[in-house]
Amino acid sequence: MTEAALEKENKQIARQYKELLRISYRSLSNEDKKQIRKAFDISVEAHKDQRRKSGEAYIFHPIAVAKIVASEIGLDATSIVAALLHDVVEDTKYTLEEIQEMFGETVAKIVDGLTKISSLKKDKDVSQQAENFRKMLLTLNDDVRVIIIKIADRLHNMQTMDAMRPDKQEKIASETLYIYAPLAHRIGLYNIKTELEDLGLKYTEPEVYNDIHTKIKESKEEQDAYIKEFSRVIEDSLNQEDLEYEIKGRPKSIYSINLKMKAQNVSFDEVYDKFAIRIIYDSDPANEKFLAWKIYSIVTDHFRPNPTRLRDWISSPKSTGYEALHITVMGPKGRWVEVQIRSRRMNEIAEKGYAAHYKYKQGDVQDDHGIEEWLNKLQEALENPDANAVDFVEQFKLNLYSKEIFVFTPQGDLKSLPKGSTPLDFAFSIHTEIGLKTRGARVNNKLVPLSHELKSGDQVEIITSENAKPNINWLDYATTARARAKIKSSLKEEKKEIAEEGKAILARKLKAQKIPFNEKSVNELVVFFNLKTSLDLFYRVGIGKIDNQKLKEFANSRSNALVSYIKRKIKKPVIAEDLNKDEITTKYDQLVFGREEDETLEYKLANCCNPIPGDNVFGFVTVNDGIKVHKKDCPNALQLQSNYAYRIIPAKWIDSSQQDFKAVIKLTGLDNLGLVSEITQEISSNLNVNMKKINFESLDGVFNGRITLVVKNNSILNKIIDRLKKINGIDKVSRE
Ligand code: MN
């Protein structure tokens, strides 16, 4: 570079720096400015020999990132300092220790977080990317500013990618669409999210992007005319009310127009809501809501509203903090158009998200914005060792984009949950302990099943009980990642505990049968009962599914050749697994037949395909040999199914320990006050028992009851009968 060119560049750097200070959203103190100057000087010095792919001096990049952070996002001086320094440790001779010495611990921590994120190995592979994402979130250091500055960094890189190789552009762009845009959305940086999406599309599908881009430019004039016409109609009425306001058009992003074109398979011209109309008004805090509805009423005086498209984000802000009133009306030329009504404050929150909350709420933003809570939830999910990285990211994104519902606690506090949430999700969102002790729920004062889908506006009360705990069915009712993870880990714990007890019981019982309790006999038992692991065996003993009778059968079989017969059939090495192993495999130990999968029948396994537990199978009724079970992909299956369809019965392997059975008990006694509640309490305090039906009659002081229970096994049922007999006033209890 020539001397003159260098001088010109230096001037430009100085100009950029001055602009950075000028455009800061927050007012900066003299001390702030001193720190920023220091960071700028260090950054200039550190990057002095580096140039970007485009040829310009590297320092333009950190300044640009700092400008986004300062102005578009509106973060504090600490963040501006960290943004200026964000690539220093990674790319130059400076160490983190030196940064800490010069700028203190907070800045050093943020820079450290940023350095860690960029040093994650980048890979095209989605699962690798997901894993990186997971790690990235783990390196947050509890400081959300790390992720926000990272988003700004990514935005500037996306804005300046032209000099890069096309394959690199595409890779970075798709990562941006996959991870950074959703993150920006969640943090409430809507403008940045939109820009990231548009840029993402520009590099992943350039033709599509350019096509829509050109068409938007072409239709701009028509759009402006439309907005003018709309304004003209309502201006007088708004002015009469002495309102300070502005009316703007808000074009839909290229990215979302493209989504719409694809989803509805329509052309650009057929996308009707290519822009919305935004009315931004001035208001003092006390009148904000009132004025929004006043403007709403003026708009709808002139244009017919579509009542199904009213969204009141003022009374119930989105979990990102977004507030506004949205209504779709039939505008000029008979076209539906969305009108967004927001105060200036709401508008700033919508555009700056996080930072605007600082400005308006004064207090600790981390509390009132829910970001901290969100990060905590994220952290919890991340620490769950069961979660696979791809699942995690998908679930995470699902939670980001799925529509939200708003429900109330009994105290009237508002909670936002993903659409489709149930009382269980609600319980776990309040507190894990409440979730785990959920016994039932009342929605709007009515008892509902735990599977009940909540709707916006519901008031939800969770009924807890010390004796309640999660059961396997809960996984069908819970939809949020958080609730499901908690339920799973609790079930696992419980199963381990029961298995521990079962192990001790088994040792005792084997001793009584004169069978040694060792690895060999445990292995034989696992095989005999068609199980996969010793844990499954102990668990079944623990819940009474494998009882004395069954153990006797085993003892008898040991003396004959059955064991070796079954072994041969199963053809699968079975290794006794240690209880410490925390993976609990799915296990299938019982075949059930019929459409309802509820019949247990005698059967034999076919020799041609040797099915093992868990295989997809069907039963075939033979002429002389009872039911033979074949694999669905058995070489003979097609021929059997086509020639003898009427002899095929559906069959399925199930986990018998998860099978419940129904039992009816009858009670008689002397009628007294509170007897019924005592009975039901006794039953409901018993774990693993559900009451399906209750019928009580009383005649002249004599009481008759009939209760249908769902229990896991006989021993539980007998225990209940014994306990009921002890209730004062009960005369007889028996099974029907
Ligand atoms: Mn950077």
From TrEMBL:
One of its GO terms (biological process) is guanosine tetraphosphate metabolic process. GO terms for molecular function: kinase activity. It comes from the Bacteria. Pfam families: ACT_4 (PF13291), HD_4 (PF13328), RelA_AH_RIS (PF19296), RelA_SpoT (PF04607), TGS (PF02824). Keywords: Kinase, Transferase. The keyword Secreted does not apply. The keyword Lipid metabolism does not apply. Residues 403-464 form the TGS domain. GO terms for cellular component: plasma membrane. InterPro entries: ACT-like_dom_sf (IPR045865), ACT_dom (IPR002912), Beta-grasp_dom_sf (IPR012675), HD/PDEase_dom (IPR003607), NT_sf (IPR043519), RelA/Spo_fam (IPR004811), RelA/SpoT_AH_RIS (IPR045600), RelA_SpoT (IPR007685). Belongs to the relA/spoT family. In eubacteria ppGpp (guanosine 3'-diphosphate 5'-diphosphate) is a mediator of the stringent response that coordinates a variety of cellular activities in response to changes in nutritional abundance. NCBIfam families: spoT_relA. This is GTP pyrophosphokinase. It comes from Salegentibacter flavus.
